[in-house]
Amino acid sequence: MSPSPSHVSRRHFLAGTAAVSALLATAGPQATAAARGRTDKPFLELLTKAADARVAEVLDGLDTVLDQLNNLGQARPAARSLRLLASVHVWADARHHHDGALIAPMTRLVDALAAAQFDDGLYDQGAVHSPPDTAFSIVDLGLLHGLLAADGHATTEGVRATLKKILLKAGEGLSTGGVHTPNHRWKVCAALARINSFWPDARYTRRIDAWLAEGIDQYDSGQYSERSATYAPIVTNPSLLTLARLTERPQLYDNVRRNLEATMHLLEPDGEVETVHSRRQDQKTVKHLSEYWLQFRALALREKDGRFAAVAAAVQRRGADQTFDETPLGDFLAEVLDHPEVAAPLPKATGEPGEFTFHDKDCGLVRIAKGNTRTTLFGGTDFPDVHAISSGLSTNPTFFKWRKGAAILDSLRLSPQFFSLGHFRAEDVARTADGWRLWAEVRAGYHLPLPPQHRRSDGRYPLTDDGRFWSAMDFPHRPKEWRTLRTEVRIAEADGGWNLDVEVGESEVPLALELCFRSGGRLTGVVPVSGQRDTYQLVEGYGTYTAGDDVITFGPGNGSGPRQPAVVDPGERYSWMGGELTPAGQRVLITGRAPLRYRLTLR
User: Closest Cα partner for 425 from 395, 445, 391, 386?
Assistant: First the structure.
């Protein structure tokens, strides 16, 4: 396989921005735009400074990283540490360029990685002989091997020789082993493509072809099947970009572009990314735009897309002050050195989406932007279909979020105490004449005697599930007397805010609306709930939440009393295991009792 243009020119690019033009004056038409001297110097300077600053941190933590590798099998921190040191060693603009003091720690890391590798070429990383976890490390090791080889410095010859042994050995396991999750397939393919770019082997390409033949798990809306703001930018998008470059599959750029276009509608003004619809752990955490940085930059340059350029520039402006979820700022330098095209000046930025209504029907998600307000409606959990709480499912019961500047309502949930079935989880979200509609129906049965043909004289019936719990009752064959609870929420814009009309019935049960505001603001008009930290009740009138100069007014209260206790029931699936479903922040409960019709106003 012939090297790509980016690999042809990398040696010259590594010489540093000051010498690029002179070195490549005769590089010919295959020289990249970045390598011909048209580089974004502030971008490179930001990354170079951050990478140099990371060296001391990496060296100080070297013993800990090696201990994690040697005793726990965690290869990824060691590979990432080695990648950082290699990036500043080869980069002529770095303070640590060809720094002899880095050779010993780099040698320690690569030797330890070689020693920790099993005979089948795999690592543990918390899962025994794990091909996908190995692939994460091999992608990093393959990248840095390419940097060191292009640099060709004599002092790294031993490191490169050991890396070659590791990579070829890993190729054996990765070309035969399996995976756990959708994104693992693309990471394994990217690792094999790295190895194959140095030492072509039909076994590698056959495995890549086999995984890719399954099709990219992407919805029409642009989200991947995991709907995750962690795995899209950290695993899937980078892997597809690597495969597009190294295996000559330009069609994969389209998958990344579509994902980035969808992501643009999930961005908050402060750089957070909406995660309520995720099927992974990040459905209940705050994620940031920074992990998408180089992908927006790469596609902005490839497609001359001013929208993507605006997003990439926004991350760059935040610079070292930006919160990075997984990747420290300095670690991005290695990726730029590996793919120097992304160091070219960005095209002229055009406006990111300003005012919009984005309805992602695949995810049951609606995003509405107006000025400095952002609204999220969510009716796309997997729970109505599978009735389970599990990793890999979307089960977040938050159905509405609203932010106005610094005033942030992070979550609105509804919890009826109905047979301990837990929160209202909308079955879908649909457009109405004046707004949006969310709905769900849940039911629980009282089980009647078994028909004669299903009775057993020994009373030993199979252990079965009735939708709430398991028992030796042969539930599927019993007639039932049903109790039903229907919930509908209609949402409409009003007076610069929202009206939410909630209707719950027909069963008579207590319930609580749970509004959870971002920590750091100030609540008024509410009373503390005894024994519950950071939890309040709005009994009457209206409450306010103030953050900086921004205020959200909410209400009215709906009374209190023993028939409508200030209690949120997460459901037996959580309480049986000692789990909880309490969002972080300041919670305000508005209680009631079904059958109920209630209008919550937010202004």
Answer: 395
103-106's contacts with Cβ under 8 Å and 24+ in sequence apart are: 103/155, 103/156, 103/159, 105/58, 105/59, 105/62, 106/82, 106/156, 106/159
Q: What is the DSSP letter of 478?
A: S
Q: What is the pLDDT of residues 379-407, one digit of tens each?
A: 999 998 888 888 999 999 999 999 999 99
User: What is residue 100's three-state secondary structure?
Assistant: helix
Q: How far is CA 186 from the centre of its chain?
A: 16
Torsion (CA) 106, 112, 115, 117 in degrees, nearest 10:
-90
DSSP string, 244-303: HHHTT-THHHHHHHHHHHHHHTTB-TTSEE--TT-SSGGGGS-EEGGGGHHHHHHHHHHH
Residues of the chain with pLDDT under 50: 1-8, 18-36
What is the DSSP track for 562-603? TTS-S-----HHHHTTT---PPSSEEEEEEEESSEEEEEEE-
φ, ψ of residue 460 in degrees (nearest 5) = -100, 85
With a CB cutoff of 8 Å and minimum separation 6, the contacts of 383 are: 389, 393, 394, 395, 425
DSSP string, 386-410: H----TTS------EEEEETTEEEE
**Is the separation of the CB atoms in 320 and 329 below 8 Å?**
yes
- For residues 82 and 144, the answer to whether their CB atoms sit within 8 Å is yes
Q: Which amino acid is at 548?
A: G
| Tokens 């603009």, residue located | 93
pLDDT at 286: 87
Which residues lie closer than 8 Å to 25 by C-beta, 6 or more apart? none
Which of 48, 219, 57, 234 has its CA nearest to residue 139? Answer: 234
Size (the chain), residues:
603
Distance, CA of 433 to chain centre: 34
Beta bridge partners of 428: 439
Rounded to 5, what percent of the chain is helix, strand, coil?
40, 20, 40
Structure tokens at 27: 């590089």
The three state secondary structure string of 161-221 is: HHHHHHHHHHHHHHCCCCCCCHHHHHHHHHHHHHHHHHCCCHHHHHHHHHHHCCCCCECCC
**What pLDDT is stored for residue 126 in this prediction?**
74
Q: Which of 327, 420, 389, 258 is nearest to 87 (CA)?
A: 327
Could you give the CA distance from residue 280 to residue 272 in angstroms, rounded to a whole number?
17
Query: Residue 347 has what DSSP assignment?
Result: P
Helical packing angle, 62-72 and 103-116, nearest 10°: 10
Angle subtended at Cα 168 by Cα 166 and Cα 169, rounded to the nearest 5 degrees: 65
Beta carbons within 8 Å of 583's beta carbon, 6+ residues apart? 284, 398, 410, 411, 413, 514, 516
Give me the residues paired with residue 439 across strands.
Answer: 428, 488
| Residue 247, both tokens | 């295996």
Question: Which residues are bridge partners to 103 per DSSP?
Answer: none
Beta bridge partners of 412: 400, 515
Alpha-carbon span 367 to 353, nearest angstrom: 12
pTM given for the model:
0.92
Distance CA 51, CA 48 (A): 5
